[in-house]
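Lab channel / #folding
Pinned by the channel admin:
"Please post every new chain as: sequence first, then the structure tokens as a reply. Keep commentary short and put observations after the output so the thread stays searchable."

First post following the new format, from NK:
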Amino acid sequence: VREPIPLRVHHLPIAVTFGFFGDGELV
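Reply from TO:
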């Protein structure tokens, strides 16, 4: 039984933060 949920949830906030702040929101 694979559970890639915790891994994704753990990397989700990082990806979202880098996506929002790295896309040009902070700039």
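NK: The mean pLDDT is 63.
TO: also worth noting, The CA atoms of residues 20 and 26 lie 8 Å apart.
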